[in-house]
Amino acid sequence: GIVGSELAYAMTRTGAAVYQSFPEAGNMGRVLPKYLSNWTTKQLETAGVHVRPETKVLSAECADNGVQVHLSSGEELTVDHILVAVGLEPSTELGDNAGLEVHKE
Question: How many CB atoms lie within 10 A of CB 65?
């Protein structure tokens, strides 16, 4: 999402190795048209973010050398820190009840 992407981008500026995973085929794929999702994904990669599309974190465990992260792709990463930024779904109930036009996509 937006917050996770901004944080991932900012962390690359500190020299950290940054990995970002998301379940969609492209960054912010649930909220952006495909061409913009592809563009934002490319921008993150250009900035140095190691993007893992169509990937979820299955588990994370503390280890002697950091945190072991197990991804749905089968990949395992050892990292120093984990940042979780989960997306939000808008509540349209108020708009519905007020008779406003609401786009649910």
Answer: 9
